[in-house]
Specification:
Largest sheet: 7 strands, mixed
Number of domains: 3
Number of strands: 17
CATH architecture of the largest domain: Beta Barrel
Shape: elongated
CATH superfamily of the largest domain: Copper binding periplasmic protein CusF
CATH class of the largest domain: Mainly Beta
Strand order of the largest sheet: 8-7-6-11-12-9-10
Oligomer: single chain
Helix content: under 10%
Length: 264
């Protein structure tokens, strides 16, 4: 037995330098404070601490839609998760993944002059900056414009926090729209029926349904009138239409009206 143990000891090979230093990845989640593509350095602020990461040559970058990205896709203010190795105190990132931060609520106000939007959440209001490149997403992944977002719309806003400011990067307003004339109102069941040219729909009011009245968002179901033409924003859940915004049909502005030339 002594001879066997001695033989095993003699045939044990020392670990290589790479095996000694390479350890399983750790993870760290926080907000990007700065990124230096030239030096391949990334500074991240977490809940209690901050960390500096060296971005390895084979570091993978994963965007919010799970597509592959690059170091230039990182920007201050976005939330990320870093998979990294701690090599004797030097942090080397192997993978950086963007993590979406989002608010879901009702649009309270949009101010074009200050490029801001106020979003009403359940218990508070949040004011977000609206940069020119803010992406607007409508139903069925259609691209939209800021004009498609109206006070009272239920939206999901993906945001970032550069310089501790709330900045909207994407606004998703995915409800369907129906324009029709009110034919029935049931105050007890909180339902409204409306008729368009070829279709009649019954809507159940969501608890947070906004009714726009005289430009304000504080209308009540009792304010609606029969034969009134309205716009309903709603979601279809297993065949049930749940309305989250009811508003008058917007009047056309002069620039929207079509000019028909008159023959002399």
């Amino acid at each position: 037995m002594a001879v066997c143990v001695s033989a095993l000891t003699l045939t044990t090979f020392p670990l290589s330098a790479a095996e000694q230093t390479t350890k399983p990845d750790k993870t760290y989640t926080g907000t990007v404070t700065s990124v230096n593509p030239n030096e391949r350095m990334l500074h991240v602020r977490g809940l209690m601490t901050s960390k500096d990461f060296n971005l390895g040559d084979a570091c993978a970058f994963v965007l919010m839609d799970n597509s592959s990205g690059a170091i230039n896709d990182l920007r201050p203010g976005e939330k990320i998760t870093v998979n990294y190795q701690d090599a004797h105190g030097v942090l080397v990132a192997d993978r950086v993944q963007q993590e979406p931060m989002s608010y879901e609520g009702t649009v309270k106000n949009i101010d074009p002059s200050t490029h801001t939007m106020t979003l009403h959440l359940r218990a508070e209001d949040k004011t977000l900056m609206l940069p020119a490149d803010c992406k607007i997403v409508l139903r069925n992944e259609r691209s939209g414009a800021l004009a498609d977002i109206q006070p009272g719309n239920h939206v999901t806003v993906t945001y970032e926090t550069p310089d501790n400011q709330l900045v909207a990067r994407q606004i998703a307003q995915t409800s369907e729209k129906f324009t029709g004339t009110v034919t029935a109102i049931d105050l007890n069941q909180k339902t409204v029926k409306a008729k368009a040219t070829f279709e009649t729909k019954k809507f159940n009011l969501a608890d947070n349904c906004v009714i726009v009245l005289n430009g304000k968002l504080d209308g009540q179901l009792t304010d609606l009138k029969l034969n009134e033409k309205l716009v309903f924003n709603y979601d279809e859940v297993n065949g049930v239409s749940i309305v989250n915004r009811i508003a008058p049909v917007p009047e056309k502005t002069e620039t929207e009206m079509v000019s028909i030339p008159v023959s002399p």
